[in-house]
């Protein structure tokens, strides 16, 4: 009986039927029953309403006690802020963040926080909200990347500007030995980042001394040290290779990531998607490919 009510409630939250949500919810005997998650995805009724942007239902469920004792998290440990960021639901995001500020610092199985999710999807207003609530600018995910890495990789200029203005550390390298600027989607994005740093008064050369505290053990690998330019060199790099188009990157990734060169690809790129492969890694990657083919 409870399972049937939960299924009906989930459907009503998906459809945005507030009247039906209130009617079904009134039949639950406890908030634990109200918050029961869908087994395969881990989605709760509140998460489903948030995903579809049904703000009135989100507010109604919160009033009924949803998430009052435990924050909703799906099977990947995403919370409602991450889901709202992915689906562009700003009103839901703001309402939930202000009601449950403890959710701001949570991370999922990939190590993403709501700030990383918002930066990745270019949600500048959400980034502002999170920073106002004390989100960690320099939190690193499981691959060692920060919110600025993700925003730079997707070329979200407004978000990049905001993160730099608020003090995102420019010298942090991820597990592959790459800074956020190395991950810039294009030369134009890289140049824009330099302009932002100059406008904010950031001196990358003088801040390089702090880099050692952020470098991971992986970044000490010899190939990473060979490939990764110093912050000063990045600011002056005149011969940075032009990035390949998204289509070319996708084609190259598809043909190579599952082949015999995949270990080399993973070592050089330190990435799990073509969008996150640093543009200036391609010249070195091609050099290694040619060398591999000669043997």
Topology:
Elements: H1 2-15, H2 18-25, H3 31-34, H4 45-51, H5 55-63, H6 80-86, H7 90-99, H8 114-120, H9 124-132, H10 147-153, H11 157-165, H12 187-200, H13 204-207, H14 222-227, H15 231-236, H16 246-256, H17 262-269, H18 282-294
Helix pairs in contact: 1-2, 1-4, 2-5, 4-5, 4-6, 6-7, 6-8, 7-9, 8-9, 8-10, 10-11, 11-12, 17-18
Task: Characterise the protein shown here.
The chain has 295 residues and is mostly helical. The chain has 18 helices and no strands. The chain has helices at residues 2-15, 18-25, 31-34, 45-51, 55-63, 80-86, 90-99, 114-120, 124-132, 147-153, 157-165, 187-200, 204-207, 222-227, 231-236, 246-256, 262-269, 282-294. The N and C termini lie far apart (66 Å). It holds the Pfam family Ank_5. Residues 223-233, 242-257 have a biased composition (Polar residues). ANK repeats lie at residues 41-73, 110-142, 143-175.
């Amino acid at each position: 009986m409870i399972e049937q009510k939960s299924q009906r409630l989930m459907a009503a939250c998906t459809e945005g039927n507030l009247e039906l949500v209130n009617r079904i919810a009134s039949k639950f005997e406890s908030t634990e029953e109200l918050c029961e998650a869908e087994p395969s995805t881990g989605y709760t009724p509140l998460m489903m309403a948030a995903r579809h942007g049904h703000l009135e239902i989100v507010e109604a469920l919160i009033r009924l006690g949803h998430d009052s004792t435990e924050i909703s998290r799906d099977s990947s440990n995403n919370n409602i802020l991450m889901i709202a960021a992915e689906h562009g639901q700003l009103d839901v995001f703001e309402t939930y963040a202000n009601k449950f500020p403890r959710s701001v610092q949570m991370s999922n199985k990939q190590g993403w926080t709501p700030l990383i999710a918002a930066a990745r999807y270019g949600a500048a207003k959400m980034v502002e909200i999170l920073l106002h609530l004390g989100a960690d600018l320099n939190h690193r995910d499981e691959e060692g990347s920060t919110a600025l890495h993700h925003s730079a990789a997707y070329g979200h200029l407004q978000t990049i500007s905001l993160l730099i203005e608020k003090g995102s550390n420019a010298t942090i390298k991820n597990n592959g030995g790459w800074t956020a600027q190395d991950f810039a989607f294009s030369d134009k994005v890289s140049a824009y980042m330099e302009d932002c740093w100059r406008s904010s008064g950031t001196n990358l050369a003088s801040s390089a001394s702090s880099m050692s505290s952020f470098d991971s053990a992986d970044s000490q690998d010899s190939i990473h040290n060979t490939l990764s330019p110093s912050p000063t060199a990045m600011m002056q790099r005149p011969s940075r290779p032009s990035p390949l188009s998204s289509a070319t990157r996708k084609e190259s990734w598809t043909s190579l990531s599952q082949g015999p060169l995949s270990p080399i690809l993973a070592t050089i790129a330190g990435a799990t998607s073509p969008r996150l492969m640093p543009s200036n890694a391609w010249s070195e990657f091609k050099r290694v490919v040619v060398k591999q083919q000669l043997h």
